[in-house]
Amino acid sequence: MSNHLKQAVREFVETSFLFREGRDGLGDDESLLGAGLIDSTGILELVSYLESEFGIVVNDEEIVPENLDSIGLITAYVARKQSAQPSAQVA
Question: Which class is 2-88 in CATH?
Answer without folding.
Answer: mainly alpha
